[in-house]
Amino acid sequence: MKFVISREALLRPLQLVAGVVEKRQTLPVLSNVLLDLQGQQLSLTGTDLEVELVGRVTLDEIGSDGQVTVPGKKLMDICRSLPDGAIIEVEQDDQRLNVRSGRSRFTLSTLPASEFPNVDNISGDTHFAIVQAKLRRVIERTSFAMAQQDVRYYLNGMLFEVTSTQLRTVATDGHRLATAVADISGPEVAQQIILPRKGVLELAKLLTDAEAHISLTLSSNHLRATTDEFTFTSKLVDGKFPDYSRVIPKNGSNIMLADRQELRQVFNRIAILSNEKYRGVRLNYNEDQLRVLANNPEQEEAEETVAVDYQGDVLEMGFNVSYLLDVMSVLDTQQVKMTLSDANSSALLEEPENGDAMYVVMPMRL
């Protein structure tokens, strides 16, 4: 293998795959990146056996074809350390890879490409394309509600529900639920998959070209996302996601409209004196005003009243303030709408009119 490439052209696909390559691996080859040169097409592949990412770059000149794996982090650090505009010459020499640029010369150890694991070829039944900005939006609006290390492993990821007209993402950790939708021209047969947490976060990082389309393929075991620049493949969580539609409150009669930024600032201030472990705040709903209160084991207290538009019964409810702040952070309208049934039922938060996302937060006893 032998080729010449500019620093910037090599650094971009390297940075794409670096997030997938694990720092501490039980298999040494998983710390490596697979370089595969065919004519003018150079592919770089990283995997942790759960997620695989292939970055592609087209060379200006045809090189000598070949395949080899090299330490991913070291190769990226070398590229980063070189000056802007540098030209890099890469040549395989038996068990070593020589990297030259200007007066700099580096020799990296390699492992055979045959040792690099391949993700199974997926034969997906479901194919559709979506604008990257839309996909990024629905992921960002729901990913914060994913569980982190829950024993209910199917919660440590995000549900993708595909129909002929919509892509819906859903995430829950058992205390709150987030869901968002995007219009698509999808398959005739509806399908549900659970993408694991790491797959969700890595996919979101890749969606940088807002106007460009990305093609998604869903199979029973994998999700694959493809653009001209990369191919991303992730294994799926093998489990059944809870029926989210049963969790979303229906027909709540107590409705509050409030300025989102003002409410967010109030919650931030009151949270300072909430219990550090449970983060509980008390909300008193009354006509045209909301009283927010908190206290902690040190007998410290905080209270603030904010003007709101509230139609309904006088209510007092407790919530984890962190969950409320997470919702305020991902909404982007001026106002937020909160719908309540009674003091013991979950709250539904959404944008006032025709929003594409809904959030459910369970109350807590204080």
List keywords for this structure.
single chain; DNA Polymerase III, Chain A, domain 2; 6 helices; alpha+beta; nine-stranded antiparallel beta sheet; eight-stranded antiparallel beta sheet; 366 residues; 3 domains
Rg, Cα atoms, Å:
25 Å
What portion of the residues fall into strands of 2 or more residues?
Answer: 35-45%
- The CATH architecture of the largest domain would be Roll
Could you give me the name of the CATH homologous superfamily of the largest domain? DNA Polymerase III, subunit A, domain 2
Alpha-beta content class: alpha+beta
Mean pLDDT: 95
Question: What is the tally of helical segments?
Answer: 6
Secondary structure tally: strands: 25
CATH class descriptor of the largest domain: Alpha Beta
Given the C-alpha coordinates, what overall shape results? elongated
Summed up, the domain count is 3
Within the largest sheet, what's the order of strands? Answer: 13-10-11-12-25-24-23-17-21
What is the distance, rounded to the nearest whole angstrom, between the alpha carbons of the first and last residues?
66 Å
CATH topology grouping of the largest domain: DNA Polymerase III, Chain A, domain 2
Low-confidence stretches: none
Helix content: 10-25%
Biggest sheet architecture = 9 strands, antiparallel
Walkthrough of the structure:
The chain has 366 residues and is α+β, with helices and mostly antiparallel strands. The chain folds into three domains: 2-115, DNA Polymerase III, subunit A, domain 2 (DNA Polymerase III, Chain A, domain 2), CATH 3.10.150; 126-245, Roll (DNA Polymerase III, Chain A, domain 2); 248-361, DNA Polymerase III, subunit A, domain 2 (DNA Polymerase III, Chain A, domain 2). Helix content is 17%, strand content 42%. It has helices at 7-18, 72-81, 132-140, 197-206, 260-271, 321-330; strands at 2-6, 32-38, 41-47, 51-58, 66-71, 87-93, 96-101, 104-109, 126-131, 157-162, 166-172, 176-183, 191-196, 213-218, 222-226, 230-235, 254-259, 280-286, 289-295, 301-307, 309-311, 315-320, 335-340, 347-350, 357-361. A nine-stranded antiparallel beta sheet has the order 13-10-11-12-25-24-23-17-21. Strands 5-2-3-4-16-15-14-9 form an eight-stranded antiparallel beta sheet. Strands 1-6-7-8 form a four-stranded antiparallel beta sheet. Strand 3 and strand 4 (51-58) form a beta hairpin. Helix 1 packs antiparallel against helix 2 (72-81). The protein is elongated. The protein starts with a strand and ends in a 5-residue tail after the last strand. The relative contact order is 0.12.
